[in-house]
Amino acid sequence: MNAIASPNLAQVLDHPGIWRRSADRQPRVRALSTGWTSLDAKLPGGGWPQGALSEILFEHDGLGELDLVMPALAALTQEHRRVIFVAPPYLPYAPALAAAGVDLRFLHEIHAGSTEAAWSMEQCLRSGCCGAVVGWLPDIDYRSLRRLQLAAETGDACAMIFRPSTHAAQNSPAALRLKVSNSDEATYVDVLKSRGLLTTTAPLLRMRA
Amino acid sequence: MLWACLRFPGLAFSAAFAATPEAGPSALLDGHARQRLIAAANEEATAFGVRRGQSVAAARALCPALDVRPRDRDAETRLLAGIAAWCYQFSGHVSLAPPQAILMEVGASLRLFDGWPVLAERLRSGLLEQGHPHTMAATPFASASWIFAASADGMVLPEREGVLRMLAALPLARSGLSASMVKSLQAMGFRRLEDIFRLPRPELTRRIGRDGVAWLDRIRGQSAHALPAWQPPANFLQKIEFDGELDGSQPLLFPLRRLTRELANLLAARDGGVQRFTLTLEHARGQSTRIVVAMAAPQREAERLFELARTRLERTTLPAPARAIELVAEELPVFRPPLRDLFEPVRGDGLDWPTLDERLRARLGDAALRQIALVADHRPERAMRYGTPGPVVSLPRRRRPLWLLPRPMPMRPEPVAVLAGPERIESGWWDGADARRDYYIVRTAQGQQAWAYLPPGTLDGWMLHGWFA
């Protein structure tokens, strides 16, 4: 038999386009380490999905929602890859960013209204010269999210969107959806959706406890 | 040597109508002040019966809506120089033959462009794309090429013998000799060039003078003729004045496209780029609007330059209708195409950061893109600034919030717990911004961590200054 002509079933199922629920072997998802060991261990691929959109839904400001992404962003800037903040709701504070390990030379901030913000994010993601593009777009609709997901695939960049957790029930094309919430003085990170499945339903991460 | 001659019969017409596209029947006027005649008319005007040589009154009688403009010789020279700049990419020796021809030595560059047919095709398609109808011919002698470009478009004669044979059969009227010479020769019964080539030289000199004989020598390659080589200028300055006033940015796009294309032609000739240019729009009463177009890296493509200028122009509110548009580019730095690693996989659109940066700036404005830098100052508001980040000065010893509020605001509701603090920050009696604050890391009822302060010695009046997001 010609081994090249007939791939076996395992090889076929290994294709990243095929998702299998509760399988022993997870499809390979290329990912960017989150810097949180316990989170990496549970996420498919071991981190933020590369070339895909991640959505972070948070209940309130100041729960540690940025802390969640900072290690990965800092690592990117240290590799001299650009990180873009699109329409941040407050001033990104340089001393804290530097303390988190961000090389400020590779961090850019874009000020824009909501339509321009989605456009800017898409341009940055598609360009292929940005490592990660992080946007604060509370009112973005499904179509625009889908465009961002496609742009992230095209440019092989890591896209992250921060939105209020009131949008949790809304449909989303994001590859990974996380919810950041607080109870009993600790911050919990739960998964709402993930491409390539996790085996647990418990919170992925407990922070600030 | 192979000299190509490009002639532009419509040059005078398009130079006169450079500012605004001709719409409807239009005609060009030429001649002395007293007796101005129609020199050229567009198709629509011809359909009305407007012909070359008619007086303005006659033409107007045929077509009342006729748009008539006088010849603008300065504009013609500029236009011709613009074309020469574009031609410079094909030949190192380009020479202007005013009013409407360009000569260029292409023998040396034939190998580079895969022979004459390929080169001719590139010349033709490039010129048509720029809207210049033309005729062309190529022979070893520049003057002969000039003659054939007018009478036999597309003729190529690489050998001297062929040139002589074709010249011999040429009617005197097309020989390039002055009208008076042709008239006197015809009066003597000569019809073609071969008739006078046979005449003994002294005899010929007596009839048409030294200049006429010198011309006949030149077209046959019997005397060398040094043609002045056109040199690309070191900067770009072009102005288009409008007949009337143009209101709004939309009608300005036509002359703008023309200017940016001319600029791109010059850049191609200089093998340079442009990083900054200025558009000036002149209004009535000496008023003017200046628009500076600056780029992150030198650019040279006509389309990109136009797009950049267009987006800047459309964002500008013009105080009044414009009478003229001027484009000035003073520094034309050497252009370096973006370097790419051979083995680096190209992702997505494959843009580099300067290009992306420019695209974003063009749409969002320069102020929309910024970087954050650290400043060695213990006062929270002054520990950062917008600008290019330098080397890391010093990191704060205490924990700092990732989000800072643009200005502190009263905290409602008040925090439920203090996690750390106080940290006394005294600032600024020496520079007027006097403030003494006790900063705390606090927690709200919703579990948020905030950076808030109290005036020293008090326990309420919490001011929120940041979020530990």
List low-confidence stretches of chain B. Answer: none
Roughly what fraction of the amino acids of chain A lie in strands?
Answer: 25-35%
Instruction: Tell me the CATH architecture of chain A.
Output: 3-Layer(aba) Sandwich
CATH class of the largest domain in chain B: Alpha Beta
What's the total helix number of chain B? Answer: 13
Q: Using DSSP, what is the number of strands of chain B?
A: 19
Biggest sheet features of chain A: 8 strands, mixed
Strand fraction band of chain B? Answer: 25-35%
Query: Which shape of chain B, going by the Cα principal axes?
Result: elongated
Summarize the SSE layout with pairings.
The complex is a heterodimer of chains A (209) and B (469).
Chain A: H1 9-13, E1 31-32, H2 37-42, E2 48-49, E3 52-58, H3 65-78, E4 82-86, E5 91-92, H4 94-99, E6 107-110, H5 114-127, E7 130-136, H6 142-155, E8 158-164, E9 176-183, E10 186-194, E11 205-207
Parallel strand pairs in A: 3-8, 3-9, 4-6, 4-7, 7-8
Antiparallel strand pairs in A: 1-2, 9-10, 10-11
Helix pairs in contact in A: 5-6
Chain B: E1 3-7, H1 11-16, E2 26-31, E3 36-41, H2 43-47, H3 56-62, E4 67-70, H4 73-87, E5 94-97, E6 101-105, H5 115-129, E7 135-139, H6 142-151, H7 160-168, H8 179-187, H9 193-197, H10 201-219, E8 236-246, H11 253-270, E9 274-282, E10 288-299, H12 302-315, E11 322-329, H13 353-364, E12 369-370, E13 372-374, E14 384-386, E15 403-410, E16 417-427, E17 435-443, E18 449-454, E19 463-467
Parallel strand pairs in B: 2-4
Antiparallel strand pairs in B: 1-6, 1-7, 2-3, 5-6, 8-11, 9-10, 9-11, 13-14, 15-19, 16-17, 17-18, 18-19
Helix pairs in contact in B: 4-11, 11-12
Concise summary:
The complex is a heterodimer of chains A (209) and B (469). Chain A has 209 residues and is α/β, with parallel strands linked by helices. Chain A has a single domain, classed as P-loop containing nucleotide triphosphate hydrolases (Rossmann fold, 3-Layer(aba) Sandwich), CATH 3.40.50.300.
